[in-house]
Write a sequence for this structure.
């Protein structure tokens, strides 16, 4: 490789994250801000494959979806998830777990302690993202399938709260800790020839957090 001159005429480029740690730097211990759960509400609560299948088959994503509007994850969040959770001002996973219809036990089983953190691009096609996760489930054994709960921001983050809680400290402590507690990350790589997550700064930071955790986080790839 080309050795950079020690006293060259070019100053070092500024880091895009001046307040975030470099890959070889461990941040000092710090307490998360009091409202750190604002974005990652119930950070270890995920949704099941059965819920994803049910949601994918809902009228809101079928005949009621506006013609010509891309069915991206971001659009699904704004048009479907936010309105359905507006009354309780919580995440979809929390709604299923604690505010189900008559606290129906079968409905409550659609959400549970997250076992897989999903990293994906919100600009990607929602149906393809869910399809990739269902393919991932199909590769598991019969007993494992029912134990998988996906932490997906569209369903597991509270989209009714102010995102100001995502401070540099949140990126340094809360997010890595949450990924580490879940124990596995699935990176949805679509489209395959040019995966959108690998061009998204947010997804790259999630990937960095998983790699920094080393043996404590299993990293998998899901394809639509």
């Amino acid at each position: 490789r080309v050795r950079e001159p020690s006293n060259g005429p070019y100053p070092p480029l500024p880091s895009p994250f001046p307040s975030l740690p470099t890959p070889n730097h461990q941040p000092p211990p710090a307490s998360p801000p009091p409202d750190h759960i604002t974005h990652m509400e119930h950070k270890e609560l995920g949704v099941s494959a059965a819920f994803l299948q049910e949601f994918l088959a809902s009228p809101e994503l079928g005949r009621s979806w506006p013609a010509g509007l891309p069915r991206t994850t971001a659009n699904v969040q704004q048009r479907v998830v936010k309105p359905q959770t507006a009354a309780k001002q919580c995440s979809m996973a929390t709604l299923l777990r604690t505010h189900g219809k008559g606290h129906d036990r079968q409905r409550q089983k659609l959400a549970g302690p997250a076992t897989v953190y999903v990293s994906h691009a919100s600009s990607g096609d929602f149906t393809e993202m869910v399809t990739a996760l269902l393919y991932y489930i199909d590769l598991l054994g019969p007993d494992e399938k029912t134990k998988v709960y996906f932490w997906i921001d569209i369903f597991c983050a509270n989209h009714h709260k102010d995102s100001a809680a995502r401070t540099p400290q949140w990126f340094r402590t809360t997010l890595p800790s949450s990924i580490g507690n879940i124990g596995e990350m699935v990176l949805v790589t679509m489209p395959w020839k040019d995966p959108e997550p690998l061009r998204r700064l947010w997804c790259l930071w999630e990937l960095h957090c998983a790699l920094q955790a080393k043996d404590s986080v299993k990293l998998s790839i899901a394809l639509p």
Observations:
- Strands lie at 45-47, 111-113, 116-119, 150-151, 184-188, 218-222.
- The mean pLDDT is 80.
- The chain has nine helices and six strands.
- The two ends are 37 Å apart (CA to CA).
